[in-house]
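User: I'm putting together notes for a lab meeting next week and I want to include a structural view of one of the chains we've been expressing. I don't have a solved structure, so I'd like a prediction I can at least talk through. The sequence is below, exactly as it appears in our construct file.
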Amino acid sequence: MSATVMVGVLVAAGVYLLLRPGQLRVVLGFVLLGHAVNVVLLAAGGLDRRTTALEEVGPQTADPLPQAFVLTAIVITFGITIHLLGLLRRRGGPEPTATGGSAGPGAAGDPAAPGRADPGGRADDTRPTGEPS
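Assistant: Thanks for the context. Below is the predicted structure for the 133-residue chain, given as structure tokens.
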């Protein structure tokens, strides 16, 4: 499979997932777009037209700069993926139901949900200053 076809498929699938509802699909779309960028950078290096840097040093030696760019792009893509998955996890709970409510944690009547008032009348994530923990 040529690099252009591979990049086209990865970009098309990534954009499709970005445009679909659901945060996990957005994360997967960003991952696919990151892979497409990596393939573009590797193809720009022309590895199929040159020899590897370990065999010999000369005018036909592969340029290490695109390879360094790909390694940097992999690290950046990994960091963005972890950040987006962290945001997804922090949001928690399922998507809202058709009636507009949420059927998961934090739904109305869930006493364990963060930010709900305790029997004393104050929210459990706030504490007056000066009160020992």
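A couple of points you could mention at the meeting. Residues 7 and 69 are 17 Å apart (CA to CA). The helical segments are 3-19, 23-44, 64-91.

User: Perfect, that's what I needed.
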